Amino acid sequence: RRGHAPCRRAGAVRGALWALAGLAAAVLGRVALAAALPWTRGVFDPFLLLVVYYAVAGTRVQAILMGAGAGLVQDVFSSMFLGYHAFVKTAVAYLVGIGISVFVLTKGEL
């Protein structure tokens, strides 16, 4: 059983690196879109797309952690008070995670 522990750690590290890459892509996407098309600033939110992706594809804990992290990163780059986007993205991650679990448990029959 000792041989399997590094494999789990490697998977966790790989997952964390993918999460950081996703956050970096969201930041770059936000900055590039705001520079090229200023009207998309209030319309398109790549951080929200990232959070919803983690809520649908990952576990609820991963989604909540990504929501908090993406929200804090977005708070740093916005003019809102620190914690606003972090709270909203965490709540969205939790609610989408619950919605997906209910949808899957009922086999798509809502």
User: What is the general shape?
Assistant: globular
Beginning-to-end CA distance, first to last residue: 43 Å
Q: Helix-strand pattern, N to C?
A: HHHH
Number of strands: 0
Structure notes:
With 110 residues, the protein is mainly α. It is 75% helix and 0% strand. The chain has four helices and no strands. Helix 2 packs antiparallel against helix 3 (60-76), helix 2 (46-57) runs parallel beside helix 4 and helix 3 (60-76) runs antiparallel to helix 4 (84-105).
Layout: helices, strands, pairs:
Layout (H helix, E strand, L loop, with lengths): L4 H32 L9 H12 L2 H17 L7 H22 L5
Helix pairs in contact: 2-3, 2-4, 3-4
In short:
By secondary structure, this protein is mostly helical. Helix content is about 75%, strand content about 0%. The protein has helices at about 5-35, 45-55, 60-75, 85-105.
